[in-house]
């Protein structure tokens, strides 16, 4: 009966932990690739974005070597490639329209969280102006302005994600410092108590008095 | 609300805020994927999702059904749908924080991978501009400029938010440093007092044993 209860508890705790990890964060699966698809409407569009790896649990290991980021065009060519980073910005001009694949690859077993932002920006060109009579030259200027504002927004997202990671690191450092100090005190007191007990034992009458 | 799949593979990719992109990702049967987004309080958010049909014209097979849940950081569910192919949700975020949209498919014996198209807009991009255009009878140019103005306002607010976070971080670091300062004094005091107690205890012990 007790064994059954023990097993049930273990299972519930496992499920609960899984649920807790669902809520509190964010992890890329072990040793795997996670891909996101984004459709680019026009050829020549500027695809920009950034991503930040939020270190999950910093226990004994110091730095995670980083994750790999690959962008594949609809034709299958690799348009952009970054290896072993913990976060970076990227920007490229799309050589053709279609579905682009943005992949994150985690080479190690510890799960990692990635916060990312991808933006596809289109500025009407002379060709588009000629085709569509509703488009004014001023629309080009407005589009340029919009793209400039988008770049500011993207930068803010990047800063926000990095700030979150920095905050996470600081909070973990604080907890660890306090934890290690308390453990240090306890160990010191324990060591000195053991010393005293040992010395007392050396002088106890039951252990031969003449030994000392 | 515990997701009882034996292989709960959690993937959460945090999308860095008002992205108006339609995101596509792959979902394997029996697995869960979650996307989280940081939403400020009292901001509108709108989401649309559908399963991409691999064969155009034919209806989707029964196995290609999604279970969706949108929850806040505190666990309140804002939207939930079981075994649907398409759907949408919209709400005003009462609490600020990370909102998570989780997708899950039931297990299937040959493992199938389906593509889910998910469009999640918050903040500026969630506003329904076509309604604004109709109401005010504004022309296209003015609408574009209104959009730019809203974007600039949101950038401004975001800067305030980042400044606040930076200040909080500074305070945290300051608190950690001062705590370390006091803790080091405490450890010195503890060390000396433990040594003193040892010495006093052993002295009285030996005096009792008439060795001194």
UniProtKB/TrEMBL annotation, chain A:
It is found in: Endomembrane system; Membrane. Its main location: membrane. SMART domains: EMP24_GP25L. It is a single-pass membrane protein; Single-pass type I membrane protein. InterPro entries: Emp24-like, GOLD_dom, GOLD_dom_sf. Pfam families: EMP24_GP25L. The keyword Transmembrane helix applies. Residues 33-120 form the GOLD domain. The keyword RNA-binding does not apply. Residues 1-25 form the signal peptide. One of its GO terms (cellular component) is membrane. Keywords: Coiled coil, Membrane, Signal, Transmembrane, Transmembrane helix. It comes from the Eukaryota. The chain crosses the membrane at residues 177-199. Belongs to the EMP24/GP25L family. This is Transmembrane emp24 domain-containing protein p24beta3. It comes from Herrania umbratica. The gene is LOC110422318.
TrEMBL record, chain B:
Keywords: Coiled coil, Membrane, Signal, Transmembrane, Transmembrane helix. GO terms for cellular component: membrane. It is found in: Membrane. It is a single-pass type I membrane protein. It comes from the Eukaryota. Its main location: membrane. Residues 1-22 form the signal peptide. Pfam families: EMP24_GP25L (PF01105). PROSITE patterns: GOLD. The chain crosses the membrane at residues 180-200. Residues 32-147 form the GOLD domain. InterPro entries: Emp24-like (IPR015720), GOLD_dom (IPR009038). PANTHER family: TRANSMEMBRANE EMP24 DOMAIN-CONTAINING PROTEIN (PTHR22811). Belongs to the EMP24/GP25L family. This is Transmembrane emp24 domain-containing protein p24delta9-like. It comes from Herrania umbratica. The lineage of its organism: Eukaryota, Viridiplantae, Streptophyta, Embryophyta, Tracheophyta.
């Amino acid at each position: 009966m007790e064994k059954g209860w023990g097993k049930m508890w273990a299972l519930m705790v496992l499920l609960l932990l899984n649920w807790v990890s669902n809520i509190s964060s964010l992890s890329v699966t072990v040793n795997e690739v996670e891909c996101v698809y984004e459709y680019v409407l026009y050829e020549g569009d500027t695809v920009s974005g950034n991503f930040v790896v939020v270190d999950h649990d910093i226990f004994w290991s110091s730095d995670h070597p980083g994750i790999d980021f690959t962008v594949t065009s609809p034709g299958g060519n690799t348009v952009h490639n970054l290896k072993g980073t913990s976060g970076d910005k990227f920007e490229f001009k799309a050589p053709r329209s279609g579905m682009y694949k943005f992949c994150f690859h985690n080479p190690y077993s510890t799960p990692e969280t990635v916060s990312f932002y991808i933006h596809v920006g289109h500025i009407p060109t002379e060709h588009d102006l000629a085709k569509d009579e509703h488009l004014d030259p001023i629309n080009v200027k407005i589009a340029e302005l919009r793209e400039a504002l988008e770049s500011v927004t993207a930068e803010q997202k990047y800063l926000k994600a990095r700030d979150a990671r920095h905050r996470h690191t600081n909070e973990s450092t604080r907890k660890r410092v306090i934890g290690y100090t308390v453990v240090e005190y306890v160990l010191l007191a324990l060591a000195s108590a053991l010393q005293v007990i040992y010395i007392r034992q050396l002088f106890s009458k039951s252990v031969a008095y003449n030994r000392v | 609300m515990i997701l009882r799949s034996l292989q709960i593979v959690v993937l959460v990719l945090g999308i860095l805020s008002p992205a108006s992109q339609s995101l596509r990702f792959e979902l394997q049967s029996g697995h869960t994927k979650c996307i989280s987004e940081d939403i400020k309080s009292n901001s509108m958010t709108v989401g649309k999702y559908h399963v991409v049909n691999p064969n155009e014209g034919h209806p989707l097979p029964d196995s290609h059904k999604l279970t969706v849940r949108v929850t806040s950081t505190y666990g309140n569910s804002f939207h939930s749908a079981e075994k649907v192919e398409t759907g949408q949700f919209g709400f005003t975020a009462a609490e600020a924080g990370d909102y998570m949209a989780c997708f899950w498919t039931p297990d299937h014996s040959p493992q199938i991978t389906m593509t889910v198209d998910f469009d999640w807009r918050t903040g500026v991009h969630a506003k329904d501009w076509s309604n604004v255009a109709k109401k005010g009878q504004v022309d296209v140019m003015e609408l574009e400029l209104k959009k730019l103005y809203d974007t600039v306002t949101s950038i401004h607010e975001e800067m305030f938010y980042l400044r606040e976070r930076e200040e909080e971080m500074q305070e945290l670091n300051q608190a950690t440093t001062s705590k370390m300062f006091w803790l080091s004094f405490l450890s010195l005091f503890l060390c000396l007092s433990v040594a003193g107690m040892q010495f006093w205890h052993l002295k009285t012990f030996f005096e009792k044993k008439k060795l001194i």
